[in-house]
Write a structure and sequence with these properties.
Enolase-like, domain 1, 4-stranded antiparallel sheet, 34% helix, globular, binds magnesium ion, 373 residues, TIM Barrel, 7-stranded parallel sheet
Length: 373
Amino acid sequence: MRLERVELLHVALPLVTPFRTSFGTMTSKDTFLLRVVTDEAEGWSEFAADPEPLYCSEFVAGAETVIRDFLLPRVAALPEPTTAAVAPAMAAVKGHELAKAAVETALLDAELRAYGMPIATFLGSVRDRVPAGVSVGIKNSLPELIDDVEKYLDEGYVRIKLKIEPGWDVEPVRAVRERFGDALPLQVDANTAYTLADAPHLRKLDAFDLLLIEEPLAENNLHAHARLQRRLTTPVCLDESIHTASDAASAIAMDACRVINVKPARVGGYTEARRIHDIATAHGVPVWCGGMLETGIGRAPNLALAALPGFTLPGDTSASKRYFAEDITEPFVLVDGHLPVPTTPGIGISPLPDTLARFTTSTRVLYGGARKL
Ligand code: OSB
Ligand code: MG
């Protein structure tokens, strides 16, 4: 397989409803897709972060520079840009996991298309559909929250995640438990909004039998998360703090978490995500697949990952209409609380050309000939 060309397409898709977290409010998904062209097939991927570095340190304009100036030259220097060779070639560049994931995934898509192999087969997926959870943002009032949760449960979602922050934590959890009962699979995500001094307050959540509390403390502070876990019965789950399989091994060894949110983008791509699944599963630590409000391009391969045997908790892999009135791919539709695992070669989906064109705000050639897009 020979790399001929890499194109970057900026896209902006309005969200059906603003999504508020402890780090900010998103009203649209503004990011870029990568399209790689090889002599054998083309491949697609989506950069998972946002224009501003509020969830993580990476951001759209920075990733574009990193990919163009540091990652693609290393990949282009390979005799063949196979999935096995790409991550090692990029390893000298520190960090930038989300940018690396975009490069690796587009090339993986091209390679698997050339083989005629679906990503689910490549990863070792064992299910043909995965249960869908939904992440519910911070609201202005409890009645508004209850209405939203009710709507999602009516649609069939099998697990609810509430975004929390100081001032919006125990009361919303109590309200949802009181209205929907103790059997509802329920979890919370703080996106680093608390400190260890909040441990006595966070302990109040133990009364509500939550599946987990996600990333309560500062990113990368495994020690603090381990100290918090000792004081909670609710399992601590890490998201932002896990960038590599090595981080996962350390966190598990320190009892800094009892569950891991695996976002392939956050850990540099699907090969590292698979390693984290393997390490966690060997230790009896459940994993689940998180999300970044991706379009169908990012969502399709996430569904394949979520079908691995160690993904025993429902993911934030929601249906397309939870995010967008119109997606740039065929939409993923909830059936009986589940989404289907894609079965066509590669990541299992392609952009719809006309729709993509409507949502594309600009394009660039990052590598290869300057043929008009
Ligand atoms: O922390 O899991 C998170 C969305 C954007 C950035 C970070 C997070 C989220 C979500 C929603 O919780 C996940 C999704 O539905 O895609
Ligand atoms: Mg999270």
